[in-house]
Amino acid sequence: MMPHIRPSSDLRNKYNEISEFCHRFSEPVYITKNGQGDLAVMSIETYEKLVGKFELYKLLDEGIEAMKNRKVVPAEDVFNKIENGLPE
């Protein structure tokens, strides 16, 4: 999909149109100022999904790093500790 680009004046004059587009297509609208890229506007749902992906990628990176540094515990050991109610 091609990026949807609008001038900054549309934020003031056509806010509802931009909002509807963001919600309907779950895509950001790129806002220009003096012909240059300035902002990206998106629905809160799209923003939350994006932030969620970043958080997931961060956790995955931490897990990969822990594996590389051999700082992991076998899943079976973790489940046994949970079942036995042992804090650690």
CATH topology of the largest domain: YefM-like fold
Low-confidence stretches: none
Looking across the biggest beta sheet, what order are the strands in? Answer: 1-2-3
The domain tally reads 2
Observed structural traits:
alpha+beta, YefM-like fold, three-stranded mixed beta sheet, 4 helices, 88 residues, 2 domains, single chain, elongated
What secondary-structure arrangement, pairings included, does this model have?
Layout: E1 4-7, H1 9-13, H2 15-25, E2 29-33, E3 36-41, H3 44-68, H4 75-84
Parallel strand pairs: 1-2
Antiparallel strand pairs: 2-3
Structural write-up:
The protein has 88 residues and is an alpha+beta fold. The chain folds into 2 domains: 4-42, YefM-like fold; 46-84, no CATH class. The chain contains 4 helices and 3 strands. The chain has helices at 9-13, 15-25, 44-68, 75-84, and strands at residues 4-7, 29-33, 36-41. Strands 1-2-3 form a 3-stranded mixed sheet. The longest helix is centred in the middle third of the chain and has 25 residues, at 44-68. The protein is elongated, with a radius of gyration of 22 Å. The chain starts with a strand and ends with a helix.
Task: Summarize the structure in short.
This protein is α+β, with helices and mostly antiparallel strands and 88 residues long.
